[in-house]
Design brief:
alpha+beta; three-stranded antiparallel β-sheet; 24% helix
């Protein structure tokens, strides 16, 4: 059963990705479309630092929706709830 959570905690996001072999990336030709990749680098993605990833995440006021089950790589970047 899926265990879906949301967070803006940078340490949680980085640890979640690293446990699953994830690397922060940006879509080439954009300044603000970020992804976490788990497989060989796709042509349209370029690796960035976690600091760059988090700066974009914060600038766009996004939060990280994810399944915390260790075998699951599901995640999505969603708008931060303005009511929080």
């Amino acid at each position: 059963m899926a265990n879906i959570k949301t967070t803006q905690d940078l340490k949680t996001i980085e640890e979640w990705a690293k446990v699953r072999g994830g690397i922060p990336c940006k879509v080439k030709g954009t300044d603000d479309l970020i992804r976490i990749r788990f497989d060989p680098l796709e042509e349209n993605l370029e690796e960035i630092t976690w600091a760059e990833f988090f700066e974009i995440l914060e600038d766009q006021e996004l939060q990280f929706l994810y399944d915390e089950s260790e075998e699951n790589r599901f995640y999505k970047l969603i708008e931060k709830d303005k009511n929080e």
